[in-house]
Amino acid sequence: MAAPLLLQDLYIYPVKSLGGIRVTQAEIEPRGLRHDRRWLLVDERNQFMTQRQTPDMALLRVAPAYNGFLLTHAQRPDLLPLYVPFEATPERTLFVTIWDDMVFAWRGTRAADEWVSEALGRPCKLVYMSDMARRDVEPDLNPEGQLVSFADGYPFLLIGQSALDELNGRLAEPVPMDRFRPNLVFSGGTPFEEDTWAEFQVGDVPFRAVRACGRCVLTTIDQQSAEKSAAGEPLRTLATYRTQGSKVMFGQNVTGPGRGLLRVGDTLQVLNLK
Q1: What is the reported pTM?
Q2: Which one, of 152, 238, 142, 203, lies nearest residue 10 by Cα?
Q3: Bridge partners, 184 (sequence order)
Q4: Residue 139 above 90 pLDDT?
């Protein structure tokens, strides 16, 4: 008898492209999991920053704290931890650019801007997406009018543990799940079976699998050392069997109901296939 599909891990990423926090339960809001990617680093032109261009962002560690989180630098013990609340105070505003979207955002504190600028060795700012801001999921694939935070394009990313296990069986040096930055990780099932799902539910919460997630160079960056794989792994190996068109696919972009509660250990049930 096949093992049941279970929600194995839940992750939130308070700041886009920084480390995640594993949680045992998470509330669902219109933009995804509560506190997920509501903060963003932007440069002096208010353009969004990620590890794609700034690999050293991997050295900024994120740890949970009361009503917020702490940022530390893995290689700079001289930098005292920076406390950031989960929600910003609307004192200063600006417009920031993320991919093709221009989004209204609130500035963090000047102390936070100074801390992240010192940590990354370049001028940058920490900004927050308030509930007043609107950023839509791709219109052509979004009949429900779903919103998204500062995530790349969708409120949730789902990956099966068996898909990572299968990939690691092909690699000389296995990689951890943090290379792929999922929100939802499930156990059970066969590698990449999530590619075939159209609708599923976790516990009593319904979701829709929209499309596979195209992966980028960020997956080649060691999240502990910020070093990029000279061999281009695991992207190079993934490309040998997970290429569709010009993209290398791993995981599913998912939309949800805008409300609900998820708990690690919840049963996952497939409702419809594509």
Answers
A1: 0.96
A2: 203
A3: 10, 158
A4: no
